Amino acid sequence: MVITLTESAAKQIHQQLEKRGKGLALRISIKKVGCSGFAYTFDYADEFLANDRVFGSYNASVVIDMTDLPFFNGSSIDFIKEGLNSSFKLNNPNVDSACGCGESFSLKDLIKA
Length: 113
Hints:
CATH superfamily: HesB-like domain
GO molecular function, one term: iron ion binding
Strand order of the largest sheet: 3-2-5-4
Structural class: alpha/beta
Domain Core: 1-103
Number of helices: 2
Number of domains: 1
Order of helices and strands: EHEEEEHEEEE
Number of strands: 9
Organism: Nitrosomonas cryotolerans ATCC 49181
Pfam families: Fe-S_biosyn
Protein name: Iron-sulfur cluster assembly protein
Shape: globular
């Protein structure tokens, strides 16, 4: 399983952890929501748990729970700025389609189980 970070995402993780004054990594997970089925959640990890898998690039880390790994395999995490908005963006090859509002997505049949 491989998850990569762009340099922009790594810089943002560093900035946010520094601003918080604590933390080890960005924690990403997936939950069932919305009209298409799934959405990403983002938080910061202050500790690593037994079921965590850590991925790193540019001296920054992302943590994903082992049960969510199939949903993220092969993903690249970027940080983008569009006008006044900025956010982490996942380029995930496991996404089949997204809803019109862009808030939720469906996954390819191979990993829905």
